[in-house]
Amino acid sequence: MTAVPHITLNNGQSIPQLGFGVFQIEPKDTVEAVSTALRTGYRHIDTAEMYGNEKEVGEAVAKSGLDRADVFVTSKLDNPAHRPDDARRAFDESLEALGFDYLDLFLIHWPLPTKYDGDFVSTWRTLEEFYRSGRARSIGVSNFQPHHLRRLHEETEVPPAVNQIEIHPYLTQDDVRGFCTEHQMAVEAWSPIGQGRVLDDPVIGSIAKRVDKTPAQVVLRWHIERGDIVFPKSITPSRIKENFDIFDFELSGGDVAEISALNKNERTGPDPDKFDRV
Ligand code: NAD
């Protein structure tokens, strides 16, 4: 099995660059899917309170026989819980559902700039408490735009270790990625294959044919070579394996540039400046 590269976060913690995402996996299918992923070699699972499957993720990790320390698990604060007391309660509940005494990474799921009087800063300060107590080994944000990140930078003490944002060949997010790199924040790419939408693209298809890999493998490899962290989702065992099998080939600089040039600023998910569902 080829080793998955690790990325060192700005606090010295290490994260596997490839993980397994469980958004839209039904709780009844989650133990099986995560168990398949762990058997395949994935050691990084991305869940969230919003996904409703933290309990089953925890069960699969426990059942795997792996040491807790050998699996990197991320969860996220749900939108209704941004007020500090709610965030403290929600964090306790995430740990309890997972059956863990710490999370490797805990994120604010959405900035919700039009809710809570635009105050995601006190929410962030509450995550700083989790970090200082050691119950969150790293803390970060998701769906934050540069202007949101700038506020955290200016008004708080612990810089986010990661920003998890939608990125795929049709949404390359060069501005947000550039800001994160400049401020030593790792970038995590959600919906890395655009929920399947980018896989029929002829440019990706022709590169896949030439390197003798599938379109999904080419797109995941493109993320890896750009330095981003990815966690594709699937419940199909053959795809779970296919998405892991991306470390025995490389793309040329020209291939990477050609895929990046497919950008059309096309989101599959909501605009973080407008999203307000709590
Ligand atoms: P994705 O880009 O990983 O696509 C998943 C879909 O693509 C699957 O449902 C399946 O239909 C298809 N697929 C997977 N592997 C395939 C393959 N090899 N060949 C063909 N089709 C394949 O989309 P996603 O699930 O939205 O994103 C991945 C993870 O990112 C999520 O599970 C979650 O952990 C995270 N995420 C985070 C946020 C956020 O707001 N922070 C939002 C969405 C997703």
Please state how the strands of the largest beta sheet are arranged side by side: 3-4-5-6-7-8-9-10
Share in helix: 25-40%
Please describe the biggest sheet, giving its number of strands, its sense, and whether it closes into a barrel: 8 strands, parallel
Name the helix and strand elements from N-terminus to C-terminus, one letter apiece. EEEHEHEHEHEHEHEHHEHH
What's the number of extended β-strand segments? 10
Structure classification = alpha/beta
Shape: globular
Spatial extent as radius of gyration: 18 Å
| Oligomeric state as shown | single chain
Distance between the termini: 42 Å
Residue-averaged pLDDT: 98
Q: Can you characterise this structure?
A:
It is a single chain. It contains ten helices and ten strands. It has helices at residues 27-40, 54-64, 84-98, 121-133, 146-155, 174-182, 202-211, 215-226, 237-244, 253-260, and strands at 6-8, 14-16, 20-21, 44-46, 72-77, 103-108, 136-142, 162-166, 186-190, 229-230. An eight-stranded parallel sheet has the order 3-4-5-6-7-8-9-10. The longest helix is centred in the N-terminal third of the chain and has 15 residues, at 84-98. The mean pLDDT is 98. The site of nicotinamide-adenine-dinucleotide has 26 residues, from helix 9.
